[in-house]
Amino acid sequence: MSESIIEESILSRPTYGTLKIVPGLAHYFLADASGAECVIRVVQELPRDMMEKVHILYVPTPGEAALITSLYAVGAKRFEHFPTIEEAVAKLGDWLSDAKMGTQLYLAGTEGLVGQGVAKGEECGLDHTAVQCEHRGSLARRVQCVHCKTMIEDVTTQPVKCPSCELLLFVRDHYSRRLAAFQGVCINAEDPTEEIEIKEVFK
């Protein structure tokens, strides 16, 4: 998967880099299909005696098997895969619930996965210096409707229709790290029924 180009002008957005192993007591990885190769690349650089410190969570695309096999083959102490980001992030919280000083968290994939992983790490008490993020894949956004609080995943259009309250939302460039989402506001509060052309802009 080729590296994504992120708009650096959005100051509220997290800074993404390239995953690199640093000294640590334990190494936790969370990735989706876009970020799987990043995890494989990094983990394969580790000495075999360090694999007891490696724990991997993965969210595959439906029906995918090859990357699951490749990730399993790297020999991590724990490897689990889940059908949704939400389930994988919940499991990450379980794993990090007893994390000790020196724990490192590595996140690779789409912005929705990375953002939710960062939020879960902070919730579990990890310092921001112990979390690395590498963005890969689509530039689709995770958006929260500010009116009904619905989270809308994989948004590629501007504007986007909220599936719950059905308002047409303008996707703002402000990113909330707490929510791991961009904010969507009614594009025409005076006339919410106005028809506005929807264009695909976040690819």
If you had to describe this structure to a student in words, what would you say it looks like?
With 203 residues, the chain is of the alpha/beta class. It has 2 domains: 26-135, Rossmann fold; 141-200, no CATH class. 20% of the residues lie in helices and 30% in strands. It contains 4 helices and 12 strands. The strands form 3 sheets. The protein has a 5-stranded parallel sheet with strand order 3-2-1-4-5, sandwiched between helices. Strands 7-6-11-10-9 form a 5-stranded mixed sheet, covered by helices on one side. Strands 8-12 form a two-stranded antiparallel sheet. The radius of gyration is 18 Å and the shape is elongated. It starts with 25 loop residues before the first strand and ends with a strand. The model has no long low-confidence stretch (mean pLDDT 91).
The computed structural class is: alpha/beta
User: Which CATH class of the largest domain applies here?
Assistant: Alpha Beta
Quaternary structure type: single chain
Mean pLDDT across all amino acids: 91
